[in-house]
Every structure is written in structure tokens, then in C-alpha cells.
Amino acid sequence: MTSARPDRDAVTDHIEWQNATILCIVERTRTIRSFFLQLSRPFGFTAGQHVDLRLTAEDGYAAMRSYSIASSPTSSGIIELAIERLPDGEVSTFFHDVARVGDEIELRGPLGGHFLWPAHTTQPILMIGAGSGLVPLMSMIRQRSSSSRPVPTALLLSSRTWSEVLFRDELLAAERDGSGLSVALALTRDETTRSGDFARHVDGAMIADVLRRLPAVPSHVFLCGSNAFVNVATDGALDAGLSSATIKTERYGG
């Protein structure tokens, strides 16, 4: 997930930059690729955190962007960043058009202390995301999968089409494994092929439907996507009866 993140963490300036090497590049959708980075100084992190990437030109001009970590915290020394190509994105177009396996990238992290997976909760969790807003939620789902007692979790994911659902096969496999993960897709420009999915934009009625798939009211609700999407999803969550105290949001884009 790309984010301008105007609310910079107070500790950001105290976290040192390091070089990371691109080990592998995987095309996820038409516009999103995963970049697997080997850290020169491995760090621990919590699902939901992000890193800063910095590109510096020969003339000294630097461009910096923040990207949520997609991988599970159990993956030692290697992190996955799923980067969406943005038409006017300085950093995202570099990664999609220029970056190659073996290149070194400057980064710092982990950053973020608000949008974090609650590792010790025993209560259900609801996640609502759109497009590349799935990335920090995917890290949470992967961390959940590594738990000995995964809590009931429902994911409502908005995507334009079936082919553009990020991490689709992995999500559907995780839903089938019997661990209590429910996945509902909201396809805004495509027909549905699964009975539990939707062919419209996310709204309060849809969120209420997904909530009924959980055994109890969720103790944590995570919303991630563009500003406009998060606003609509938050209103829908409140309309569905969820408490604002349980809702945490992560926004990016315009």
C-alpha cells in the first residue's frame, strides 16, 4: 500500500536507513507487483506496520514513499512489499519499470504503532479493504495463520474485477483451511461467481451481512483503502452497529 502518511511517527527520525536487496519480483495483478527484499539488518515487526523507501538521483534529488509490509512477521530477514503502479508515481513507476532482481533499495522501518494486529485477542476480528489496501490486512491474515489458535476473522475486500483481487488464490485457500477465516469479495465492475460475494460497492447492508458470518461482535475492526473508500466503509460500519471505539483506519491516496 502506498501512503503519503502525513502523520509521521515521532520516532521515525531515530530509525536508521539500511540497504535491502531485491530477491524476487512477482506480478500479482495487472497493476501490482510484489517485491521481496532481503534486509541487511533484519528487524522484527508487527503485522500492519510499514517501511519508508527512499530513491536518490545522481543530482541529490530524493523521493520517499511509505509501503505497508505484506509478509508475515514470522518471515525472518525478508519482507514483501506489494507496490501498485500509479500513473504519476515517482517511486512506484521506478519499481515497475526500472527495478530488477539484485538491485539495492534504501529503506527504514518498521514504522507505525496504530494499525496493528492484536496478537493476544480471543475475540472475532473484521477487516475491510479495497484494492492495494489489502496489503497490511494480508500481513495480519498471514500472522493469524501462523497462530496456534487463530481467532474468527471476516474479510470484506472491494476490487474492480475478479482478476484484480490481490492475493486472491491465497485468500481463498486460507478460507478453505477450516481455521475460521471468512472472505467476501465486493466486485464493483464484474459479476460474482461465489454465493457469498457481492457485485456492488461496499455499503452498510453489505457490512451487516458479513458481520453475521462471525460468531460474535468483533472486538477490532480494521479498514484500509483510499480516503474516499475508508470514509464510506467507516460510515457503513457505524450504520451496521459497530462501535467507533473498535474501528482503526489506514488511508492512502486521494
Describe what this molecule looks like in 3D.
- The protein is α/β, with parallel strands linked by helices and 254 residues long.
- The protein has two domains: 110 residues, Elongation Factor Tu (Ef-tu), domain 3; 128 residues, Nucleotide-binding domain of ferredoxin-NADP reductase (FNR) module (Rossmann fold, 3-Layer(aba) Sandwich), CATH 3.40.50.
- The protein contains five helices and twelve strands.
- Helix 2 links the parallel strand 8 and strand 9.
- Helix 4 packs across helix 5.
Number of domains: 2
Shape: globular
Count of discrete alpha- or pi-helical segments spanning 4 or more residues? 5
Largest sheet: 7 strands, antiparallel
- Give the proportion of residues in helices: 10-25%
CATH superfamily of the largest domain: Nucleotide-binding domain of ferredoxin-NADP reductase (FNR) module
Key structural traits:
5-stranded parallel β-sheet; alpha/beta; Rossmann fold; 254 residues; 32% strand; 7-stranded antiparallel β-sheet; 2 domains; globular
Question: Strands, helices and their partners?
Answer:
Blueprint: E1 2-3, E2 18-27, E3 32-39, E4 50-56, E5 62-68, E6 78-84, H1 90-97, E7 104-111, E8 125-130, H2 134-145, E9 153-159, H3 168-176, E10 181-187, H4 204-211, E11 220-226, H5 227-239, E12 247-252
Parallel strand pairs: 8-9, 8-11, 9-10, 11-12
Antiparallel strand pairs: 1-5, 2-3, 2-7, 3-6, 4-5, 4-7
Helix pairs in contact: 4-5
